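Risk register update: the risk of archive-format incompatibility is retired. Evidence:
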Amino acid sequence: MKTRHARLLLPLLLAAATATSAWAQDAIKVVYHLNEGVQQASRAIGNIRNHLNADPSAKIVVVTHGPGIDFLLEGAKNMQEQPFAGAIGELASRGVQFRVCNNTLVSRNIDPGKVVMEAKIVPSGVAEVARLQAKEGYVYLRP
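Archived output:
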């Protein structure tokens, strides 16, 4: 009798464990889209900190193009003349990824070497936002 119960119970336990494991691994994926410049970047940094404080497991990618890349250039400062470097490093250490549009670098004649080391250069910022949403299931946010 015990063997029969065990055979009936085992599939239920495995299904529950699998469902629990899948639920725990399903971190919310969010792409923050920045294309307005330093003021928007300052807002975004605050939003992202708040986001991670509320949901530390969130997977966040910041995609920039146009004036949105400015805070990811070496020596960039916020409206209070404070360097962005500390905030970028802090967020990167919390798992946030930063992506910079190569089209913007080319059109603005910016040396890719001026992009902070925490950021990755992608061919197109708008194409990257679209790809993350369509192919990887990211939720779109624009601060």
